[in-house]
């Protein structure tokens, strides 16, 4: 079975995801081929994982704690390197990138974390702009991007607030805004609703779907079955480092 996830639906199955040929075709945004990740203590992160996500696709990755979900995302943005296999993102072999080449790829990948990772003594605007300052954008370019990004996540009225003045849902939307202000073609979200109630989870999902509708490839790890049901998007499951197709 070839596991290719994009806008089209797929039949429900619990078969392991089978390998397919590594490709640099423009329609493919993410591809893992025979990816295994082991750690120095001998534990497995991933075991022979194969996965293809088309450009503009939306994919949920679910599974129990310790199954390898965060490891998968870390491999995609180069925080970890595969022990074996190929990790291709936007045509680049991530495991072979170093230094400036890896930094350039990371500028094309937005990452959202469960614990927000906001800078406490910086305002919403400063937190969002920080990633662009670090990348050397001019003040004019940063200012041009701030308001549209805040509007997209519904926080234009909170621009001058500090993180401690925001609810958990608002802080997660700031995290989302920070991840997308550089208009990356890929967005990785690691348990983005893990600390949120139903209403805030629904708001975050709405933003993710809106971004996907704009052409962003979205990959979300989650334990939240309700979120998956609301989204009605393809799902794979990780169990003991192996990847299985669910829907």
Tell me briefly what this model is.
The protein is 31% helix and 24% strand.
General description of the model:
With 247 residues, this protein is of the alpha/beta class. 31% of the residues lie in helices and 24% in strands. The chain contains seven helices and eleven strands. The strands form two sheets. The chain has a six-stranded mixed beta sheet, with helices on both faces. Strand 10 and strand 11 form a beta hairpin. Helix 3 packs across helix 4, helix 3 runs parallel beside helix 5 and helix 5 runs parallel beside helix 6. The two termini are 13 Å apart.
Distance between the termini: 13 Å
Q: Please state roughly what percent of the residues sit in beta strands, choosing from under 5%, 5-15%, 15-25%, 25-35%, 35-45% or over 45%.
A: 15-25%
Largest beta-sheet characterization? 6 strands, mixed
Number of helices in the DSSP assignment: 7
Q: Based on DSSP secondary structure assignment, what is the total number of beta strands?
A: 11
Residue runs with pLDDT of under 50 for 5 or more positions:
7-16, 18-22
H-E string: EEEEHEEHEHHHEHEHEE
Rg from Cα: 18 Å
Helix content: 25-40%
Oligomer: single chain
Shape: globular
Give the strand order of the largest sheet, numbering strands 1, 2, ... along the chain.
7-8-9-4-10-11
Mean pLDDT across every amino acid position: 88
**What structural class do the secondary elements suggest?**
alpha/beta
């Amino acid at each position: 079975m070839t596991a290719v996830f994009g806008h089209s639906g797929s039949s429900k199955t619990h078969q392991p995801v089978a390998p397919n040929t590594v490709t640099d075709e423009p329609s493919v945004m993410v591809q893992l081929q025979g990816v295994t990740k082991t750690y120095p203590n001998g534990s497995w992160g991933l075991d022979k994982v194969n996965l293809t996500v088309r450009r503009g696709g939306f994919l949920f990755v679910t599974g129990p704690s310790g199954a390898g979900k965060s490891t998968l995302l870390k491999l995609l943005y180069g925080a970890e390197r595969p022990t074996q296999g190929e990790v291709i993102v936007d045509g680049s072999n991530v495991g072979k990138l170093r230094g400036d080449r890896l930094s350039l790829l990371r500028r094309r990948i937005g990452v959202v974390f469960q614990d927000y990772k906001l800078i406490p003594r910086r305002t919403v605007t400063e937190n969002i702009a920080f990633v662009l300052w670090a990348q050397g954008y001019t003040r004019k370019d940063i200012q041009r991007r701030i308001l549209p990004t805040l509007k997209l996540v519904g926080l234009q009225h909170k621009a001058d607030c500090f993180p401690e003045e925001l609810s958990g849902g608002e802080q997660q939307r700031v995290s989302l805004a920070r991840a997308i202000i550089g208009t990356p073609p890929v967005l990785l979200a690691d348990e983005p609703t893990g600390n949120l109630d139903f209403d805030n989870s629904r708001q975050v999902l709405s933003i993710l779907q809106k971004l996907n509708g704009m052409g962003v490839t979205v990959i979300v790890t989650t334990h939240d079955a309700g979120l998956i049901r609301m989204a009605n998007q393809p799902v794979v499951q990780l169990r003991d480092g192996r990847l299985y197709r669910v829907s």
